[in-house]
Design brief:
The protein is an alpha/beta fold. It has 3 helices and 6 strands; from the N terminus they run E-H-E-E-E-E-E-H-H. Helices cover about 25% and strands about 40% of the residues. Strands 1, 2, 3, 4, 5 and 6 form a 6-stranded mixed sheet that branches. The longest helix is centred in the C-terminal third of the chain and has 24 residues. It is rod-shaped, with a radius of gyration of 25 Å.
Length: about 160
């Protein structure tokens, strides 16, 4: 592969193309290779990608401090098979499986906005929230507020 080459990127099934499109094109562009996604290989260089497994998992929601916004760690992993070949000579530049993983922290309330309803693979698996997050913390806040109000009106100098 050299600068000035053109490449066709074929993803099978096509429904996974949106996962790889931006990263693949920008990566090849930095190497001076013009790339496009197509099911018909019109250029001499062919990138054939086949996702094996895609998963998104969320950790149990947590807070960085008391009463702060709930956040969760999101782990995205992608395992795919790749074949890079030259159409005219049949030369294979690369053949094998690749694994990519990324972990970040996202606000728990914006997860629905991050997931694409058109692509079920973008929906992650959630762990159940613990009892503390759901019941105990609001109970402590409400209870403390009630005690402060009660003391304010009953204890006067």
């Amino acid at each position: 592969m050299k600068k000035g080459d053109t490449a066709t990127i074929a993803v099978s099934p096509v429904s996974y193309q949106w996962l790889l499109e931006k990263e693949m094109i920008s990566s090849l562009k930095t190497q001076g290779i013009a790339a496009r996604f197509s099911s018909v290989d019109t250029s001499d260089l062919l990138f054939s990608l086949h996702p094996i497994s895609v998963s998104i998992q969320y950790s149990e929601p947590f807070r960085h401090s008391f009463l702060s916004e709930r956040v969760t760690e999101r782990n995205i992993s992608l395992n795919f098979s790749a074949l890079i070949s030259k159409k005219t000579t049949g030369e294979i530049y690369y053949s094998g499986d690749e694994y990519w993983s990324s972990t970040d922290t996202v606000a728990y309330d914006v997860i629905a906005q991050l997931e694409n309803p058109e692509h079920p693979v973008s929906h992650g698996k959630f762990l159940q929230q613990n009892w503390y997050e759901n019941y105990f913390e609001p109970f402590v806040v409400i209870g403390t507020t009630a005690i402060v109000i009660f003391l304010f009106f009953t204890v006067r100098s």
